[in-house]
Give the backbone structure.
Amino acid sequence: MDAPASRGDWTYVRQTGETLAVFGTDRSAGGVALIIRCDLATRRVGIARAGSVSGQVQMLVRTETQERVLTAGPADGPAPLVAAELSASDALLDAMAFSRGRFAVEVPGVTPLYAPAWPEITRVVEDCRG
């Protein structure tokens, strides 16, 4: 909780079949650091962060109230991404959205990311729960 927040801002995006909370310095491929994605058809939430891996890895998500290791792997996107997926009802998503100040997303071999807990995250999670 004491680490400085990573540079960037959150943006909410609604597209056909999905909604996204995109964190980064801009929405270009090189500026996106983290994506929280709701697949409206499956009601699953993806957590994808910038980074490149060759297979399955552990993604550690730390919040003020929870710490959880997720299984993640490479994901398709405009830039290399490492992604994990959760049920929309998973309490970790609430912990991320309501974490005081920021939460961390860590993947081996990639610089840790400390993202602020802004309303865009809650909006995407609620889209999947609705």
About this structure: The chain has a mean pLDDT of 93. The longest helix spans residues 119-129. The beta strands are 9-15, 18-24, 32-39, 44-50, 57-62, 67-75, 81-87, 102-106, 113-116. The chain has one domain: 9-129.
